[in-house]
Amino acid sequence: MLANLLLILGCAVISIALRGTGSPFWFRVGNLCVIATSFLVGWRLTGNKTIGALCASSWLLFPWIDIVTRVRNMQMPSERPLRPQAPPGPTRFPMLSEITEEMEAEGFEHLQDAGWDTDEQRQFVRLCIHPTLQIRATINLVESPEVSFYYITLSSRSADGTLWLTWNYPFSSSLKPSPNWRIQRLRGAHGFLELNQAHLDWMHRLNAGTLVAVEPDPEKLIAEIEHELQSQLDHNLACGVLTSGDPGLVRYSWRGCFFLWTQFLRDLLRA
Fold first, then answer.
1. Which of 1, 13, 85, 148 is deepest in the core (most CB within 10 A)?
2. For residue 26, what pLDDT band results from cuts at 50, 70 and 90?
């Protein structure tokens, strides 16, 4: 028994060490070691490999249970109008001022603070533009009963309508992107300066062509973002990820539930 406990403990320590290296590859290996540790717990402590397999598969099945029992029954507004909103205080969002100062030092202009609230989630958005580089930037704070996090986006639009989006959103997207979106996702604790340089390098590398001028009018900029969000929602309704719910509301279809589960698996197996 002592040997089994030491084996389980050793695998658990290796899992924690690999996940803390900062390397995306070793983070993924660490995630697999977590699953292996669960298998060892079930197998070595009971002597039954079937129980070990059930323990390991629980990492994959528990999210599916939550999706089917909770998320499947959630309904979301079919429209999300952005409204002017006072910025959150330093207690809710201590990094807001620092990130804004970094943006302004790089030539970005702060245009508007806005956001939207639903029963399940509250989101704050600070809108900034760089008028000469034709880049739109947003600082986003997402708050829900389960989790609170922030992320940064930088986007440019080419003359053919393609939206080039660089962000550090920490999770796989819960909706499919619109067909004309191209997304560069940088995971981890990337600050604004690194994201900005990555976006500029991406535009240069892909030769995105003539970029459309960013809209300096706050109301028109908000309307542009609302149109993009609505186009994403319409795309997910068209491809079956979402389905109509009560009047003015949408919810995930069974196909959408499976999509969310595969997104969870992607997050589990990559950093």
1. 85
2. low
Contact 233, 250 (CB under 8 A): yes
- Tokens representing 204 are 């240069």
- Which range among 47-56, 75-84, 184-193 has the greatest average pLDDT? 75-84
Q: In this structure, what are the phi and psi dihedrals at residue 214, rounded to the nearest 5 degrees?
A: -70, 150
Q: What is the CA radius of gyration of the chain?
A: 22
Between the CA of residue 211 and those of 103, 116, 148, 180, 204, what are the distances in Å?
Answer: 20, 29, 34, 14, 12
Q: d(Cα 264, Cα 171) in Å, to the nearest integer? A: 8
Are 178 and 232 spatial neighbours (Cβ–Cβ below 8 Å)?
yes
Which amino acid is it at 207?
N
Distance CA 150, CA 95 (A): 9
Burial class of 139 by CB neighbour count within 10 A (0 to 12, 13 to 18, 19+): buried
Closest by alpha carbon to 240, among 262, 257, 264? 257
The candidate with the shortest Cα–Cα distance to 252, out of 63, 66, 73, is 73
Domain ranges of the chain: 2-69, 82-220
* Residues contacting residue 151 through CB under 8 Å, at least 6 positions apart: 140, 142, 167, 168, 169, 170
**Distance between CA atoms of residues 188 and 185, nearest Å:** 10
On the question of pLDDT at 189 being above 60, the answer is no
Tell me the per-residue pLDDT of 196-252, one tens digit each, with 9 for 90 and over. Answer: 999 999 988 876 557 888 888 889 999 999 999 999 999 999 999 999 988 888 999
Long-range (24+ apart) CB contacts under 8 A made by 82-85 are 82/114, 82/115, 82/116, 82/125, 82/222, 82/225, 82/226, 83/114, 83/115, 83/116, 84/112, 84/113, 84/114, 85/113, 85/114, 85/115, 85/124
